[in-house]
Amino acid sequence: MLGSLLERLRKALSRGKAEEATWEEVEEALILSDMTLPTVEWLLGEIKKRRPNSEGLRGALKEALLELLSMGDHRLREGPQPPTVYLFCGANGTGKTTTIAKLAHRLKRKGRRALLSACDTFRAAAIEQVEEWGRRLGLPVVRQSYGADPAA
Fold first, then answer.
1. I need a labelling partner for 17 at 20 to 30 A (CA). Which of 71, 86, 131, 138 fits?
2. Which of 115, 119, 125 is nearest to 144 (CA)?
3. 20, 22, 18: which is closest to 56 by C-alpha?
4. Could you report the average pLDDT of every consecutive run of 10 residues in the chain (152 residues)?
5. Quick count: other Cβ atoms within 10 Å of Cβ 26?
6. Is the preceding omega at residue 140 within 30 degrees of 0, hence cis?
7. 59, 123, 56: which is closest to 94 by C-alpha?
């Protein structure tokens, strides 16, 4: 996802001028990268507030993205009583499984018990990918067969 966003932004900003067509291309690149419309509107507003010249457009976008990423509380929250369940959802190929493995590893290092659940019963090799992470991390994996109801 990030790679395709950066490639789209490079193309949109290659002209170097902060023209209306460029703003539309930047907006389109952000939306096509699965950013929500309110987030895209906020980012464009922040960039335009900085009034970048042709050389400063990339820098203004970078500053606004860094500001966006630094907002909020990024602490991992656990429920008041076990078990705490973390649900990840998103578009294909955006790194959910790898992020889940990193989170499980982090929890295990903190002395917590973790369990992986392979809920994608449609995508080829999805179950095997989760099982491989479970094997590498020494964690149990709950799974169904392909085509099954993942909630069963």
1. 71
2. 119
3. 18
4. 65 61 79 86 87 70 87 84 88 86 94 90 85 96 82 69
5. 22
6. no
7. 123
CA nearest neighbour of 141 among 78, 97, 76, 84: 97
Residue labelled with tokens 């994996």: 141
**pLDDT, position 17:** 56
Rounded to 5°, the CA angle 94-92-61 comes to: 40
Please provide the DSSP assignment of 62-102 as one string.
HHHHHHHHH-S--PPP--SSSPP-------TTSSHHHHHHH
